Amino acid sequence: MTLYLGLEQSQKLSMTQSLRQSIEMLQLSTVELAEKIAAELLENPVLEEASPADLADAEISANRSDDYSFYEGARQYQSSSAGSDKKQRFIENIVSESESLSAHLLAQSVLVVVPADDEKRSLMQEIITSLDSDGFFTAGIEETALEHNMSPEDVRDVISAIQAFDPLGCASSCVNESLLVQAKNRYPEDKLLHGIIAKYFADVERLNYDAIAAKLKVDAASVREKGRIIQTLDPFPGRGFSKSETAYIIPDADVKLFDDQLIITLNDEWIPKINIDSYYTKLAKNKSITKEQKEYIQEKLQSAKYFIGNISNRRNTLLNAVRYVMEYQIDFLRNGRGNLKPLTMAAAASALGVHESTVSRIASGKYIQTPRGVFKMKHFFVSAFSPEDEAQSADRVRCEIMSMIGAEDPAYPLIDEDIALRLKELGIDAARRTVAKYRGKMNIPSAGMRKKINMMKFEEA
After folding, report:
1. Phi and psi dihedrals of 67, rounded to 5?
2. What is this structure's pTM?
3. What's CA 427's distance to the chain center, in Å?
4. DSSP label at residue 174
5. What is the pLDDT of residues 51-100, one digit of tens each?
6. Omega of the bond prior to 167 within 30 degrees of 0, cis?
7. CATH fold label, 384-460
8. Which tens digit of pLDDT belongs to each residue from 103-112?
9. Residues contacting residue 77 through CB under 8 Å, at least 6 positions apart
10. Level-2 CATH architecture, domain 101-192+232-241
């Protein structure tokens, strides 16, 4: 084997820390950006939160090339301290601690007399803490009995005790069992109700009350009455205690129409305004500091400049993207749902002169306040109804289907074929399967199911 030493030229693309940070910031919502800025203020000593005097100076000198303030190249906003404090208090008070399902059931388990022995009480606590968010116990009784060296009857006794706790039906294995437990506790003498839930639950789900009546040889009116009782029961007793974080939305942009002209405002006036502490700029030029100290300060200064520049870049990119999308979808702002035009991220990227991935990142997790409500920015990117008909958007098709079903005769609901024919009259060529797909995505039941629901509502009235 021959060894040799030589030079070779090659090209490669490397991502700098600044570029990586810029890409990351594009994806941040306004709330996340505020958190990012707060973290950077703690990490980088040369950054400082701008004072009211700094804000005024920054606005005056916004066009200077050597100004690295947050306000460079963008419209400035200044919020009063009172408004900021009010928003802060609102955010701080918005989340309250609620009791979990397991804590609620465990508190009741302490008070029960039966089961009295420690093994059963320990099993009861274990079952309670293993319930899923719906309140169901999904482990098998036989497996649980084998694992704890107990008989299946003992395990069932423990489960039955938990099922009698509030809320009724917890520790059941499924919806059917949960409803049956509730029915037996609330209506202990109603054997017909118990039998319907235990043996004909599949028919209950499909509202096939006539079929149940025929099988039980009772009148259909009695079965429908039991159906109304079943609807008052809770199929998922644990959901009321499910501990999930509530997402509170602060729109990233506010869009208004005034005299048919768009007014777009970025909702970033409340986030921390930052600049570079002049003390460190002067200190970096001081010849009395050590080489290591100077290198450290210069590194932090450079990092701060990149950070502030990336904030400004994110703001400008977001503002341009929102402006383009809202101008393109102005018919939606004027007339509401059903008026979104087909728009892809690739088309938006081409119009804005950026890469498609940039549009995807800037739209990710962003919300826009419009005269029609608050929507995800991605809501305004709508696919065409079909490759053959790129002028029609899927949004319009959904809106037309919903409108037709909303105006139908309750006694004679429109079947999918009828809806497809009506869409064709509007210039939308949709097959029956397509109508069924869109209807399913909107959680609208079939014509037969809608007719049964309407009949029940009529009987209740």
Report:
1. -90, 120
2. 0.62
3. 34
4. S
5. 655 555 555 444 443 333 333 333 333 333 444 454 454 444 444 456 78
6. yes
7. Arc Repressor Mutant, subunit A (1.10.10)
8. 999 999 887 7
9. 268, 269
10. Orthogonal Bundle (1.10)
